[in-house]
Amino acid sequence: MQNTSPNPALDTAPGTVTSPAMTVEGDVIVRKVGRRVMWYLIALYVISVLDRGNLGFASFSMNRDLGLTPQMYSIGLGVLFLGYALFELPSNLALARFGARKTLTRIALAFGVVTISMAFVTGPYSFYLVRALLGIAEAGLTPGVFLYLSYWIPQHYRARYNARFTYAIPCAYVLASLISGLIMQLDGTLGIPGWKWLFVLEGLPALALGLFGIYYLTDHPRQAKWLSERERNWLQNQIESEKKGNPSGHTDGIKDLLKTRIFWLLALGYIGIFCGNACLGAWLPQILHRHDVPLNMIGILAALPPLAGVIGMTLLCRRSDLKNERIKHAIGGTLIAATGYCIVAFSNNLVVTLLGFMVANIGVYSSLAIFWSIPQTFLSAKIRPAAIALVASFGALFGGWLAPMAIGNIQTKTDSLSTGLGLVSLLFLVSAVCIYFVGRRMAIIGKS
Predict the structure, then answer these.
(1) Average pLDDT, integer, range 61-82
(2) Is the pLDDT of residue 397 over 90?
(3) I need a labelling partner for 448 at 20 to 30 A (CA). Which of 39, 147, 186, 424 fits?
(4) Which domain does 95 fall in, by range?
């Protein structure tokens, strides 16, 4: 019998895998989902990175007012990721159990309040405490969003949507560079230091976005009233089909996961990527300041590297999707990042340093987006929330907490960032090697 359905591609039976690449209607549905959810996720992440990354600009006067040494500043930079690492797993499990609407909005409201409270720190210890609380508040956001996208975006599209979400990082640094520089010029207004204005004004949008998300977010495709019934069924069938076809579905428990070599390769490989991301905006404003760049120009110059990162990441992630290949492209991103940080480490020239940061931004953002497509692809749906959270926690603990502390210690002893940033470059080389062996293990799993 001839099929008279107006949209035969949407009549896919449950459990049948249809390549979205060959389905025009599927493309339309995924774009519709993207328009609905991506702007909110990106806005949420932009604000979180803005609230986390404004420390580089606040440090000009805050460090002096609070009596912070370079070592103390680095401890504050890193202790955020200690809280982040410790609460990553519970937060991601909460998202899987209670849904994105409750979890992501709770995160937004919490880090908005904590960001504003940064304006009231009085010394090193209160500085450490509030930074740790900010990490706890934000814990689970990044892996939670990548997990959330795996509920909505079929595998064929995932790297490009991961990349669109990752756009939030460079966009946030661009905004932080431009906006934070302007806010810092409020220094002395109403007798309040500029760095306090910075934390208060940049914490308010998180509160607004958290309140709005309570009414806006949808947890799963089957609940999406903004999709037609046929669209909901097609999308839900695609996601369910991918779960059933997962080659590593036999790994259903955390204990089993921790026994697998591929998990530890992913965790070790993520350390360099996380460290590189954490360091992108932490020291660039200080480096520009040391080159006697005026405050009103620091924001403009600091915006150039993340803009380059957006362009490079777009091209590399799009190529990854077109080739349907993750491992080689993720390795390429880590090697680009290693090259960029190496240039920065050994340069004494302002122009060369900026070029090095541009290269590093391209590599960091590309490797970050493509890296998270790997566990989304082969992990079973049951273990995916815990696995993603554990990998993210491992990266946050070693790449976000310990590595910046080591860099600060090196800076204090040598009065130079060169050796510390060289360490970041080395960590990216380790990441490249780990991702290579992840690919080898995935190939073995696929054949078994």
Answers:
(1) 83
(2) no
(3) 147
(4) 20-447
Cβ atoms of 329 and 366 within 8 Å: the answer is yes
The dihedral sign for the CA sequence 276, 368, 37, 134: negative
Q: Tokens at residue 34, please? A: 């993207």
Q: Provide mean pLDDT across the span 98-110.
A: 87
Dump pLDDT digits (tens) for 263-303. 889 999 999 998 888 777 667 777 887 787 876 677 778 87
Does residue 2 fall inside a structural domain? no
> Does some domain include residue 251?
yes
- Mean pLDDT score, 327-354: 92
**206 vs 210: CA distance, rounded Å:** 6
**pLDDT, the chain, mean:** 80
Above 90 in pLDDT, residue 356?
Answer: yes
- Tokens 């035969």 belong to residue: 8
**Residues 128-132, mean pLDDT to the nearest whole number:** 92
**CATH code for the domain of 36:** 1.20.1250.20
- Position 306 in a domain: yes
The answer to whether residue 80 is domain-embedded is yes
